[in-house]
Description:
The structure holds 2 protein chains of 2 kinds.
Chain A: E1 7-13, E2 16-25, E3 28-31, H1 33-40, E4 43-45, E5 48-51, E6 54-56, H2 61-64, E7 65-66, E8 69-71, H3 72-78, E9 83-87, E10 90-94, H4 99-103, E11 112-114, E12 120-122, E13 130-136
Parallel strand pairs in A: 1-10
Antiparallel strand pairs in A: 1-2, 2-3, 3-8, 4-5, 5-6, 7-8, 9-10, 11-12
Chain B: E1 9-15, H1 20-29, E2 39-41, H2 46-51, E3 58-62, E4 68-74, H3 82-85, H4 89-102, H5 109-115, H6 121-138, H7 142-155, H8 160-163, H9 177-188
Parallel strand pairs in B: 1-2
Antiparallel strand pairs in B: 3-4
Helix pairs in contact in B: 6-7
Amino acid sequence: MSIIVKRPATLVVNDEERAISVAIENHTWLISPRDLESAIGWELREEGLCRGDVCVPVRDKNLLEVGNDIALDRVAETLRRPFATESDPPMAVIGNPDSGSRLGSESAPNFSLPDIDGNQVSLDDYAGRKRLLLAWSSW
Amino acid sequence: MEELKDYDFTIIAIALDEDVDAIRQWARDEPTTPLTYPVLVDRDFIFAETYGITNVPSTVWIDEAGNVVRPPAITPGDDTFKDFTQIDSSVHHEALRAWVRENTPPMSPTELRERIVPAGESLSLARAERRLSMHLLRAGHQERAAVHLATAMELAPEDWTIHRGSMPVRGEDPFGQAFFDFYQAWETAGRPGYAP
């Protein structure tokens, strides 16, 4: 098997930039299983792609595994999350699941963002109250 | 807000802005009385994408049990842009009072389900491309950032959050000609994605 040379890259998950090592081959992003787990929290097991106790079944493991590496774009596909990439500089975004499917679920998805003073605030901080979320902007 | 202060209710304001300083300044200077609710900054449109916000100002209502009782809807605070929005703000204000004070649900469960529309593949990908462009821009790669922003706009030609929201970083005036051109195209297309 040929030796795959990796280079440093940035993977954006939510609002965080995470450092990974990647080999880009035919637009496929190959990363180590360890990077996969540390960057997005998912790992490939016998039962599928898993995070903690939650597993998403994988029809053909061979599609995700390339040698000792994992094809990140196929991971995104399996998790039904969009994946956008740039090769120079190597940077990729693994996006959020479809907003419609999440809103349709039983409870409102939690999120956590900084307030104007830099304190982290989440929706769950106000659990047990009626809440009106107001999205606005200066534009 | 003031008249609802005795109820177990809070507003959480979320600013979809790259310029955090501008928001901070607004929150300190603009309000006539000090703000009694949190103002969060969503540079990466995390909230906007999770909740499928297609334009501003939009509101989402969440009840005590943590369920969405009113999905994202464009909600002007007053009637300044009534001609544009075709929305009467007093209708929203009345519904809000009834919900907070008397627990009157703003819509039936059936209507609620109908209103939650999946973003679909191209809008989801457009959002990822938009986010990629913002991170490239912050890292100083203007040219590649512009390419990915163009891809995002191509994938979601009628999404206000992507189009108008990127005008400041594209060097266009969100209240100028570029905005009116976009508005005209959107109006001609039959106001897609519009949920008043």
